[in-house]
Amino acid sequence: MAEAPVVESPLAGPGSAALAGGRPAVGPVRAWLRFFRSELRQVFLRRRNLLLLAVVALFPILIGIGLRLSSHPHGGGGGGGLSFVTQLTGNGIFLSFIALTVLLTLVMPVVVAVVAGDSIAGEAGYGTLRYLLAVPAGRTRLLAVKYGVIVVYAVAVTFVVTGVALATGAALFPIGPVTLLSGTTVSLAEGILRLVLVSLYVSAAMAALGAIGLAISTLTEHAIGAIAALAIFVVASEVADQVPQFAVIQPYLPTHWWNSFDALLRVPIDSSTLLKGLLSFAVYLLIFGSFAWARFTTADVTS
Amino acid sequence: MTDVHAGSPGGPAGPPGAMAGPAAPGRDTARPAGDTARPAGTDTALAVSTTGLTKRFRGGQVAVDHIDLAVPRGSVYGFLGPNGSGKTTTIRMLLGLAFPTSGRAELLGVRMPEGTVQVLPHVGSLIEGPAFYPFLNGRDNLARSDAADRTADPHTAADRINGALDRVGLLAAAGKRYRNYSLGMKQRLAIAASLLTPRQLIILDEPTNGLDPQGTREVRTLIREIAGDGITVFVSSHLLAEVEQVCSHVGVMRTGRLVFQGPLAELRQTGAARIRVETADPVAAAAVLQKLGLPEPLVAGDEVTAPLGDFAAEQICADLVHAGIGVRGLGVVSPSLEELFVGLTGEGYDLDG
């Protein structure tokens, strides 16, 4: 039965033909960027996440003031186990390294954990996940965008710490050519360049942590559970890293290489340590990224 | 532009052999469900079709049990059943949110969940109640949803969002945070989200849940308008009364099984009509009815009722009078849709599942 093409209505188009054409409004890259920007805005304009960044910014200031007060009488001391503290009185740039060392133990991982743990679990909790997938955002695409946002947030956290610490250090302590851990003195400009490299290294560590958080986040619809699980994971790893009996497994712990950024503060740069650290981050990213993908693309969304 | 249903620019010409679906905008009550004119599997006359669709949860419970849905294009299909009868699980499978244990599902002629990216841009949906970010306002929530859609044109986003908000009457409240919305407003925002781009199919899961009668009426009016644009509407509800006025077709679920599917008129016909005779001598009248061949007449007070079957009421009346029965009143009673629905789905709460 040959039907003449009839009324023009949204229905009239034969299904699959119209569908295959789709509506290519913009290229895939621009569509991807649009989604990424939208999610980025979501995370960075959310009051909770901004507040966390503010808290992170507060710590270097407090540490700087504390060290300034304690170092005043004799021009040294009070540093305990922190190798950078003795150098701080000579050069304010070291406040950045001190702040990173201190905050990497708990504050920075927890702040990254909030955003990473919330990424998928938070959507599931609000019920918005099913709507994003029905849009369709695409499961792999959504996961990639979410991880991209986590990485940007991790970089932001790190640079807020180093940036604020640098400014505070410059305000409270003398600043000038930097004497590195190997005893070599480099210009202030090179010192700051090395600080940027250190920040990138720490960002990579936090990004790897974010991948673990993303994976945990795909397992639950309770964001707070995912955040807590990741924080506990970090603490457990740090504790294990301190127990001598665990020496064999310590290089494989996710937190083991976080503080190895001091390899960048030597001449020549201790690249072997640095590469081991970066390799550790890459392996964790790969394992947990794959896990998150495998889980998220095959699980029923029941929230 | 306020017309959010501008026709989607399809290809200039369809492939040979692909025929236009039921083209007339509005409802297609004539076409029976499961029209066989097209090859199975690529049935473009059906907006939704499933064969043997089954979902078994990990605990072994079968939530959806071999259902064969056939939703004609252009229809308003009421997907009915009590809570827990498998409606939402079915919808989740149709939308690629849950994966079927066995069987297959097609939306607009495209296999799901494989065709998710291809077909879902043409499908708007409300799944198990509205869900948005509580700390964003209505407009920002829609913008977020639109940004996730890779087929949506960013240049027209603002216009389309305003158009959709206007359509559901939320334009004035667009700047209000979602958490301050009333339940009815939340529901309408979810419907607005399903209208952001031109659609061929809208799936609404319990769109009237929790709404007051006024809100329910508004949703019904919206459904009528959407259907009036020629869009297929698949609407689920546990209350027949809420959707029967707008539906052209219904599918009825009971404990995971599809126990009826077809045009609403067909459901009406499944009800066995009974003849009711009012008389001073009901026992004698019952005897006459039995002699005529009507099975098991029931006597109650001065009334006799019996299943009418294929008999003509006029003839029975004549026969009664002929037999000397004084007929005071005579009529044919058909069960209401509600009664039929209850008969299909079971009375009240079905706890045996």
Characterization of the model:
Chain A has eleven helices and two strands. Chain A is mainly alpha-helical. Chain A has one domain (27-296). Chain A has a two-stranded antiparallel ribbon with strand order 1-2. The longest helix of chain A is centred in the middle third of the chain and has 34 residues, at 139-172. The radius of gyration of chain A is 24 Å and the shape is globular. The two termini of chain A are 46 Å apart. The model of chain A is unreliable at 1-18 and 73-81 (pLDDT under 50). Chain B has helices at 87-94, 116-119, 138-148, 157-167, 183-194, 213-228, 240-243, 264-270, 282-292, 313-322, 337-345; strands spanning 46-56, 62-67, 70-72, 76-80, 102-107, 110-112, 123-126, 201-205, 232-237, 249-254, 257-263, 274-279, 298-300, 303-307, 327-333. Chain B is of the alpha/beta class and 353 residues long. Chain B has eleven helices and 15 strands. The model of chain B is unreliable at 1-42 and 349-353 (pLDDT under 50). A six-stranded mixed β-sheet of chain B has the order 7-8-9-4-10-11, sandwiched between helices. In chain B, strands 1, 2, 3, 5 and 6 form a five-stranded antiparallel β-sheet that branches. Chain B folds into two domains: 46-263, P-loop containing nucleotide triphosphate hydrolases (Rossmann fold, 3-Layer(aba) Sandwich), CATH 3.40.50; 272-334, Alpha-Beta Plaits. The longest helix of chain B is centred in the middle third of the chain and has 16 residues, at 213-228. Chain B starts with 45 loop residues before the first strand and ends in an 8-residue tail after the last helix. At the A-B interface, helix 1, helix 2 and helix 7 of A face helix 2 and helix 3 of B.
